[in-house]
Structure formats: structure tokens, C-alpha cells
Amino acid sequence: MLGAGIGYATTFFAGSSAGAYDAKIINAGDTAWVLLSAALVMLMTPAVGFFYGGMVTRKNVVSVIKQSLLILGLVSIQWVLIGYSLVFGKDMGGVIGGLNFFGLHGVGYAPNTDYAGTIPQLAFMVFQAMFAIITPALIIGSFVERIRFRTLVLFVVLWSTLVYDPIAHWVWGIGGWLHNLGTLDFAGGTVVHISAGFAGLAAAIVIGKRKDYAQGQHLAANNVPFVLLGAALLWFGWFGFNAGSALAASPLAVNAFVVTNTAAAACALTWMVLSWAENKKPSAMATATGAVCGLVAITPASGFVGPMASLAIGVITGVVTYLMLMLRSKKMRVDDTLDVWAAHGMGGVTGAILTGIFAEKAINSLGNNGLLFGNPAQLLTQILATVVTVVYSFGLTFLLLKLLSPLGLRVRPEEEEQGLDTAVHGEEGYRL
Fold first, then answer.
1. CA of residue 271 relative to chain centroid, distance
2. What is the DSSP letter of 81?
3. For residue 243, how many C-alpha atoms fall within 13 Å in the half-sphere facing its CB?
4. Cα-Cα end-to-end distance for the chain
5. Any idea what the CATH number is for the domain that residue 384 is in?
6. Is 415 among the domain residues?
7. What is d(CA 186, CA 189) in angstroms, rounded to the nearest whole number?
8. Does residue 14 register a pLDDT over 70?
9. Which class for 204: exposed (0-12), middle (13-18), buried (19 or more C-beta within 10 A)?
10. By three-state DSSP, how is residue 287 classified?
11. Inside any domain, residue 4
12. What range does the domain containing 122 cover?
């Protein structure tokens, strides 16, 4: 019945996904690159599932990967119905987009020249959808092993609509107030990683600690190869994440590709050395986590900085995120289980601020110079955007979870003890 009702509604959207367009202005190479990049970014969401799934206990590995796939489905639908319109629709006071693209009405083969003039707007839409999808998937690492499934479903839909969509419009939408101030965020350091990292911190505080949580005790990973596989797939997919954000098969995409790889490598090696110094052994888990932190940090800067700057960003971010993880683990009474705040939140903050230092207009004429190139005002703009994103994401996530608490935020103690794989999903990760 639902399918039939939706099917009938298509008569009101007849032709809206095609529309009149000039085929001569569509660049086949740019379109192919953006579609490929969208596929690469899509791969990152199940990669997050493997990355997180390898870190948790063996009785919760299925639940974490399942949650990632759930988010892929939920946000895909939300984005088609209202998400894309709220972010890239007609600006309303610099705060949110209108509903002129509801159900992708008017989003067709013709380019949206405000954003990408050589590809169909449908290609731009689906590329941006993958960013909206992966952002809440990052948050789940903060409350793995204890979140109630039905509450998670509601939280993801509400968070995407009330937190992600407004922030994305502020930074990326034509007319968005942070966009108008000149905030530089090439591929989502502010929109994706800071918002997810600080939402994760708020969620960890509201939902509370695991039953067996002990401050300073490291989580015993159930499957280190899963973690390494997830990190490798994230590294691979991140080329679409950053280089795809050029929205064209262009020299700027090449630059973004190169600096993404450089920063990830530098941060991975930094984490390896720091873990070696701390524990007398070079940890594989630390190296993989460091690579992800480097990818996070270079994301806002990837379209504005050169290779040497990306090397500096990787090393600096490696030190900052490693110290933040130690601080959270040993000093903060918060069970952010997989350290989403340290890796994504503080990695994103570091990258966003360093963008204001290392950015060069010579690399991207649509960008601006940073502090080192004679424009200290850009650093102040980056700090302002960072602070606003931190406060809004943390505050609204905290409030949202408090409002959802009557539904039950976490599973029953006996279900947590049993593990969510069998207690919630009735499926075991391993049968040995």
C-alpha cells in the first residue's frame, strides 16, 4: 500500500528528474569523475562499520556494521525527500534552504550552475548525499554496545534534519551565513567531522557508560584485521571524498588527491611513532587510527593547500589527536567508546584551523589566502566557524537525546551483557 501510494504521487513529479537541458554543457569526464567519487564515498560508510566493528567486543560486531548499513538506507531516503533541498534549496535568511527541491522536484539533467556547471544536478545531488550519509555513521562509535535500535533510527533521521542539514547549508549553501563570511571547508571538515565528533561526545555523555567500563582501560579489539581493512577502505574512499569535491576532473582534483594521501601518510606514521614511544611497540591499530585522523584533518584544507602544507597538517594533527585520545581516556569521565570526539571532533577542529593558516589562493582561485600568506582574517573566520559548529552540534545533539530519552536510549542490562548481536539482531558475528 505504501509503495502504491508513493507510486501514485510520482504523477506530481512527472519529468522532474529529467527536464530540459543543453547537452553541450555537460562534460562527460566531469560527470564520470563525480559519479565515481560518489561511489567511493558510499564505500566509506560500510568501511566505517568494519573499522568500528573490529574494535568492539566480538558479541557486538554485527550490530555495529548493521547500524552503518541502516544509516546508509535511512539518510539516502531523507536526502531525496528533504535533505538535499534543506541544504542546497533556495536560501532562507542564511540559515536553511527552502523546500523547492522537495522529492528532488526540479533536480534533473540540467546543471545547478550555483554549484557545478558541467555536471547534471542529479550527479551533484547524489555525491552530496554520500556526505550526509557518512556523517551520522561516524557518531555511532561513541555509543556502541549499548544504544537501543529503535531510538537510533529516530535519532539518525532527526539529527540529519536538524543538525547536519543546517550546518551544511551555513557552510556550503549559496546564501549560508558562514559561506558568506568566507569560511573555507573544501570537503567537510566542519560540516562532517566537527559536527559528528562533538555530537558523539554529547551522545556519550547523555547515554552513559557501558556496564563494564573502566576509565583508562583500552577496548580489547575483537578483530584487528577488520580495523585495518576498514582503515584501508576509508583511505581509498577518501580520494573520492576530497578530490571529488572539486566537482570536475580538474587540476584542483589532482591537488586534493595528492594532499589527501600525504596528510594521511604523515599522520599514520606520527601515531605509529607515538604509540611506539609510549608502549615500546609500534601498534597496527594506532597506525590505522592515525591514518584516519590525518584524512579527517586534511578534508577542509584539501582544495586550498599544497603538498608541504599537507605534510605539516598530518604531523600536527597526529600529535593533537593522540594527546586528545589520552586525555579522554585517562582524565575525562566520558565513555566515548571508539574516541569519535578525539579522532573526528578534534581532528576536524585542527584541520579547520590549520586551513586558515596554510590556505593559498594560488591553489584555488575561489578560496583565499591564510595567515602564512598574508591574510590573518581567514584564521579568525575559520575559528568562528569551528566554534559555531561545536556549540550547535553538541548543544542540539544533547537536547535531542534528552527529548528521546523517554523512549529508552539504551538496551536493558541483560541485553548489554548478552551483546547486541544476539539480543537485538539474533545473529552472531562468529561461530567458532
1. 21
2. I
3. 25
4. 43
5. 1.10.3430.10
6. no
7. 8
8. no
9. buried
10. helix
11. no
12. 23-405
How far apart are the C-alpha atoms of 317 and 323, rounded to whole Å?
10
pTM for the whole structure? 0.95
Residue at 91: amino acid letter: D
What φ, ψ does residue 217 adopt, rounded to 5°?
-85, 125
Neighbours of 387 (CB within 10 A): 12
Which region holds residue 228: left if phi is over 0, alpha if psi is between -120 and 50, else beta?
alpha
CB of 95 closer than 8 Å to CB of 170: yes
**Residues constituting the chain:** 432
Instruction: Kindly state the helix (H) or strand (E) to which residue 195 belongs, with its residue range.
Output: helix 195-207
What does DSSP assign to residue 96?
E
Q: Which residue has the cell 535533505?
A: 83
Q: Among 175, 213, 7, which Cα is nearest to 92's?
A: 175
Instruction: Kindly state whether residue 221 falls inside one of the protein's structural domains.
Output: yes
For the stretch 183-224, pLDDT in tens is 999 999 999 999 999 999 999 999 999 988 888 777 789 999
Angle among Cα 171, 75, 204 to the nearest 5 degrees reads 80
Q: Name the residue with cell 552503518.
A: 68
Total tally of structural domains belonging to the chain: 1
β partners of residue 96: 92
Q: Kindly report, residue by residue over 103-142, the tens digit of the pLDDT.
A: 998 899 999 999 999 999 999 999 999 999 999 999 999 9
How would DSSP label each residue in 377-404? HHHHHHHHHHHHHHHHHHHHHHHHHHHH
Please, what's the b/e burial string for 138-151 (b: 16 or more CB within 10 A of its CB; e: otherwise)? bbbbbbbbbbbeeb
Q: How far apart are CA 246 and CA 169, in angstroms?
A: 18
- Of the candidates 328, 375, 330, 366, which has an alpha carbon nearest to the alpha carbon of residue 347? 328
Question: Domain for residue 424, yes or no?
Answer: no
CA atoms within 13 A on the CB side of 119: 23
Contact criterion met (CB below 8 Å) for 126 and 108: no
If you ran DSSP here, which 8-state letter would residue 194 be given? I
Which residue, among 368, 349, 352, has the nearest Cα to 360 in the 3D structure? 368
Residue 17 — pLDDT band, cuts 50, 70, 90? low
Distance, in Å, from the CA atom of 78 to the CA atom of 49, rounded to the nearest integer, reads 20
